[in-house]
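Supplementary Note 3. Input sequence used for the single-chain structure prediction.
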Amino acid sequence: MLTALIADDEPLLAAALQSALSRLWPQLAILAVVHDGASALAEINRQRPDFAFLDIRMPGLDGMAVARSVSGCRVVFVTAYDEYALQAFDAAALDYLLKPIDDARLLRCISRLQQAAPLVQPIAAAPAEAQPAYLSWITAGLGNSKRLIAVDEVQYFKACDKYTELALAGETQLIRTPLKELAARLDPRQFAQIHRGLIVRLAAVQGIEQDLLGRSFVLLKHGGDKLPLSRSFAAQFKAM
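The predicted structure, written as discrete structure tokens, is reproduced below.
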């Protein structure tokens, strides 16, 4: 059975999250609910939960400090503030939940944790070399207009000069990370490169078609987008 800890300095919000998790993911055992960073660190080291839902702003040790002090426990940050997103990325968090959390967003988080569950191992059995921390979400937008986007909401990534364009359902966003650098941070079980300037989410793909000239295209399930599939990536992509 998978286990978790909740740390939030607001008892009512901690209780609400515990209730929502129990309702939406009854198989998850909540080992402890604490209200400060020091208690969170102590309970994580004592009980070894698989996951920790950590508020960021807590008395004493904050959630970031707790996350950087533990190993073998995957972290989800739960906060009312979006300015910590880049720090959460550096801490290899599995997800970043903004309060208030609705059921739909929590269900997406649960799905992400369930996918990560096979990688969760007891600390004593952890390999010497850490597993790669793939992106779960991305901070998109330029200037003061930024938002958090879960990678499983992205249809495809497209190189766009010095930026990368994220194609979502009905809209696009820009990030400053070059596509080549981004490719190394995406889970190869979820994403595949189909062109020098294109990476597609596999679950968004409907199929492949060829035109009369023999050129291959990847068809997406939503929006009717048709993306070029280059010969250099075709064989590997078709084998997936």
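The chain is about 25% helix and 30% strand. The chain has a mean pLDDT of 86.
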